[in-house]
């Protein structure tokens, strides 16, 4: 048995942290000397301490570490690590978005480019016969996975879908998470609805405001701001219905991000 200072030196873990693990219940001393009150540790506790340090270093909090220690086996810990990997990837994506915004802001300041003006045109959009897939997805970045699901379904069921595709956003507000999106692909014939895939005719839109966005998808945000300014100047219109988005050039047919081309469509009505 080792006193806490000795155990600290052998394991290269500070006494402060050993006391903290004791207080939180992650690693209690193997024994408390009833005469001196010293915390005593055994070599059998070293593997447990190593697990605690490993999990702590990859971002597990105290409660997560406690659960992992109580249910430690290869299957359980693999699932826990996979969940943590996905959590960290999401955090990285969020931080990368922040960096992108900083870099864009620096570029705009250096170029004295305060804003970009997008041209807005008015169209009449007919009804389309489509194969649709509507789901609530974690965020807008997850839409690409939904398109993969659509393509896989079409291939598996020998369904020819046109390259004319678009997305309908059913939320009445901007959502940071749990986005209600419907993918639509034009088809020349109606099939059987199954597994969330539905054949239907989309609603015709008499007055649709459309604007083209060049470059990365992050540019879409500034296009909406530009549209807000346009709508304020053309106050005979107001927004109504569900917005749509058509990606004319994207990851599947264009490698250069600067050449991406996205069309934003927003239904309007006259006041």
From TrEMBL:
Enumerate the SMART domains for this protein: AraC_E_bind, HTH_MERR
Name the InterPro entries for this protein: AraC_E-bd (IPR010499), DNA-bd_dom_put_sf (IPR009061), MerR-type_HTH_dom (IPR000551), MerR_fam (IPR047057), Reg_factor_effector_dom_sf (IPR011256)
Which SUPFAM superfamilies does the record associate with it?
A: Probable bacterial effector-binding domain, Putative DNA-binding domain
Under PROSITE patterns, the record lists: HTH_MERR_1 (PS00552), HTH_MERR_2 (PS50937)
* Keyword Oxidoreductase carried by entry: no
What does the record list as coiled-coil region(s)?
Answer: none
What are the protein's UniProt keywords? Answer: DNA-binding
**Pfam families for this protein:** MerR_1
Boundaries of each HTH merR-type domain copy? 1-71
What GO terms are given for molecular function? DNA binding; DNA-binding transcription factor activity
The regions listed as transmembrane in this protein's record are: none
Top-rank taxon: Bacteria
The protein's name: MerR family HTH transcriptional regulator
Q: What is the species of this protein?
A: Gottschalkia purinilytica
